[in-house]
Fold:
Amino acid sequence: MIRTFGTGSVCARLLTQGSKYARCRAAHHSGSFDVAVIGGGIVGLASARELILRHPNLTFTLLEKEKELSLHQTGHNSGVIHSGIYYTPGSLKAQLCVRGAMLTYQYCQKKGVPYKKCGKLIVAVEREEIPRLKALYERGQVNNVQDLRLIDAKAIREKESYCRGIMALDSPNTGIVDWQLVALTYGKDFQEAGGTVITDFEASDFKVAAESAAGSAEGLKYPIIIKSSQGKEVRCRFVLTCGGLYSDRLSEISGCSSEPRIIPFRGDYLVLKPEKNYLVRGNIYPVPNPRFPFLGFHFTPRMDGSVWLGPNAVLAFKREGYKLFDFDTQDFVNAVSYRGVQKLVMKNIVYGMGEIYRGVFTSAQVKNLQKFIPELSPSDVLRGPSGVRAQALDAEGNLVDDFVFDGGKGELGSRILHVRNAPSPAASSSLAIAEMIADELEKRFQL
Structure:
């Protein structure tokens, strides 16, 4: 069953409905459509929804390899609605995040999806961090993030009674939501607009039909055949793939380059014991260090009232490996044999070893968190959930920070659009990303 997070009866009801819906659609595993969208995570669902609302006269299907929707990156998301502070001014990430957050709040309000604007503090605990904090403030201003302000130590304590810092960037429009619930709501919109969801369909091959389907009077109206690993088939005119952790492998099927490669990074969270939840009101983040590839440990309140602490970031040895010892031979060899991974490891070996150490020893992770909340102790936390992030990496060991579209070669490639990289914060930006993807698909396929 899809997990519920205690965000109220509306949440629980829709999650249950989504689970039942996924199961009942699993029986439908053939048909012909104008557009097939592969991937039932938040980007695939948002894009399918946007496309069917724009083109109600076309037929759409969404294909998902699991028995239910949004079980992987979307279902293991920390739940933050990011406001767009961190990203390079003028970049797609900045534009899409700011617009996406606005659209998310409007959408949740309209659909009755529970959310909270609990805010975020990016806290400097050392003097050397202040110039970087001020630079973030200026970047946020250029990105048109609303209501940002720099606050002093006294104002920090007024907002977060147990937090200590010398200066902070206050982002009151940062929020939290259950992104899995949001994604399922996108799926419900897609269904109600006439879309078909087919679960338990793992796309394993694409090919151009050599001749008309038996008994068909429509010739090659649906020339693309999508085959599943179970031997099922779906025919369509055009394909959009939003494969997340498998986006590179889906792309290679239609003749695309093997780069950028998707490398899975697992993030492990701690959870505050319920009796200690009073220590945190809103999101508390460190000032990011540009020498390191990720944002660092932070405090994240959840819609169910719990508080997550972390995550670390370590190379996962399985693309959907949420446990410490999860291992897949193909995923492991694919990662460690890649020159980009080898270069990334060498550039960040000290940082990486520290992440592994903190992942194993809870007290080491708590020590970092105590810089912000001194009252926190190792006895106040429990081991929590983990998620796996699909990180696109180039051959030089650089994290690919922008969107990557691809198609492939020949007739097949001319009818496929692969979303090879939808970088974090893809959930916060999902409705804006969907607009961009729909624009790109319309341009390529002249819908």
User: Anything to note?
Assistant: The domain at 263-399 is CATH 3.30.9 (D-Amino Acid Oxidase; Chain A, domain 2). Residues 1-13, 15-30 have pLDDT under 50 and may be disordered.
